[in-house]
Amino acid sequence: MPNILLEEIEYKIDETSFGTWRRYGYIDGTSYHEFRSRSRILGLPLVHYTYGRNPEIGRRKCAKGIIAVGRFACGVIAIGHASFGLVAIGQLAIGIIFGLGQLATGIWAIGQIAIGFVLGLGQFATGYIAIGQFAFGKYVLGQLGGGEFVWSMKRADVQAIEFFKNLPVIKDFLP
Questions:
Q1: Strand, coil or helix: what is 165?
Q2: What is the mean pLDDT of residues 149-169?
């Protein structure tokens, strides 16, 4: 089998009014797809999407754009297995403002492991407000928790109870 990394790559290219699709089919039936929008903001494409192993580099390519979607994604809004951005969604979501994923970070973080600055919501959560099975922060609601004001199985601080009962979302569900 020839080494395609040393050959000229012949992509199937489709031009649309919104952007350009580049596609490549491998002999084994797998494929590579990439979409890049024509619109740009601060030099980044508005939308960048990648799927599969890039034939030019022999590995997955990171999607980079205002909206980035791919196995690896970096953008203002990033969606992928491993994502980094102001808003990040994925298994590993490193968000600056918001992260949603199995391991998520951000000012607000929601995930199995949620490392938040203001809010952490997850099985293991940290943040100024931390809600989870294991939670650590200033105001904590959890099965096991640690912090200044905690409402847990072993501890029920009056300040924590009042704080959580007065949250608008929780208030709607209380009798």
A1: helix
A2: 90
> What's the whole-number mean pLDDT along residues 125-142?
96
The pLDDT assigned to 143 comes to 94
Measuring CA to CA, how many Å separate 152 from each of 112, 132, 149, 163, 166?
18, 10, 10, 13, 17
Per DSSP, the three-state class of 134 is strand
Question: Residue 159: what pLDDT?
Answer: 94
Three-state SS at 81: coil
Q: Strand 31-37 to strand 44-45: parallel, antiparallel, or no bridges (unpaired)? A: unpaired
Q: CA dihedral defined by 148, 152, 157, 163, rounded to 10 degrees?
A: 80
Name residue, tokens 């918001």: 98
pTM of the model: 0.86
**Dihedral sign for Cα atoms in the order 98, 101, 94, 125:** positive
